[in-house]
Amino acid sequence: MRRLMAAALAVLLVSHAGPGAAQTSDLVSRTAFRVCADPANDPMSVEDGSGYENRLAELFAAKLDLPVSYTWYPMATGFIRNTLKAGKCDVVMGYAQGHELVQNTNHYMTSAFVLVVPSDGPLAEVESLADPKLQGRAIGIIAGSPPANHMAKNGLIGRAKPYHLVVDRRHESPSVDMLDDLEAGTIDAAVMWGPIAGPLVKRRGTDMKVVPLLKEEGFPKLFYRITMGVRQGEKVWERKLNSLIRRNQDEINAILTEAGVPLVTDMGDGMLEVTQ
Predict the structure, then answer these.
(1) Tell me, what CATH number does 32's domain have?
(2) Residue 273 falls inside a structural domain
(3) 68-72 and 33-37 as β-strands: parallel, antiparallel, unpaired?
(4) 158-217, pLDDT tens digit by residue?
(5) Residue 9 — pLDDT band, cuts 50, 70, 90?
(6) CA-to-CA separations, 160 to 18, 137, 147, in angstroms, rounded
(7) 131 Cβ contact partners less than 8 Å away, ≥ 6 residues apart
(8) d(CA 73, CA 66)
(9) What predicted TM-score, i.e. pTM, was given to this entire model?
């Protein structure tokens, strides 16, 4: 179950000449910051460079004094095998901590699943899936995502509207469809991964409220630490990225906050206070 949830989150969910470069794997480029990315994973990675993961890639490349280059591939079955493991690129900008398909860097953000509701509606004050106000409501949920367990435990699955988990985002966007349905009144609330929901809601400029689900009791947890992913065994490259994360955390937070990503504390017990 733990592996399935990590995989689900990863779906909703890289080199530089200089001191120590000789120790870096021969697969890691010394002429470009090579990123493995989905070309249509809006708002995270987008082929036109508008995603916040694109901005993070630009930040890291600038610190390494390298240009950014991309290997584009839909983030579905075979993504890691056909990009990172194939040696076509060196880093995945966003990956859930603890996933065995990649070697994780230190995490650079912690975020959570969220409840999205109309800010002036009857559910505006709801902060937990256990709130009785949600009973009998039609709630959108990505099928198979961790919050579905909590919805089932709280008797909310009966009227839930499921949206696909694994899709080719070039042709289908479940998160956008869910927010469209919420605006149209087809559903009363939406449960989504915060780093997707927050930026999409902010961009729409609509009167919606994004509430991180930090009060759910029991397993599974609904907050996750997000890392970068590199090839297994590339410890020197991982340490180089860890150093960049540590030294540039304020700039990373600024990019994420500007995009609308809800940032929470490492233990998921509150919102992160971001220094402006």
Answers:
(1) 3.40.190.10
(2) no
(3) parallel
(4) 999 999 987 777 888 999 999 999 999 999 999 999 999 999 999 999 899 999 999 999
(5) low
(6) 54, 8, 12
(7) none
(8) 22
(9) 0.90
HEC sequence for the chain: CHHHHHHHHHHCCCCCCCCCHHHCCCCCCCCCEEEEECCEECCCEECCCCCHHHHHHHHHHHHHCCCEEEEECCCCCCHHHHCCCCCCCCEEEEEECCCCCCEECCCCEEEEEEEEEECCCCCCCCCCCCCHHHCCCCEEEECCCCHHHHHHHCCCCCCCEEECCCCCCCCCCHHHHHHHHHHHCCCCEEEEEHHHHHHHHHHHCCCEEEEECCCCCCCCCCEEEEEEEECCCCHHHHHHHHHHHHHCHHHHHHHHHHHCCCCECCCCCCECCCCC
- How many residues are there in the chain? 276
Residue 272 forms part of a structural domain: no
Q: Do both 69 and 151 map to the same domain?
A: no
Tally of structural domains, the chain? 2
Residues 98-110 have pLDDT tens digits of 878 999 999 999 9
Can you give the residue range of the structural domain that contains 63? 2-109+222-259
Residue partners of 132: CB distance under 8 A and separation at least 6: none
pLDDT of residue 42: 96
How does pLDDT run across 40-61, given as a tens digit for each residue? 999 999 999 999 999 999 999 9
Verify that 58 and 83 share a domain, yes or no: yes
Distance CA 137, CA 271 (A): 27
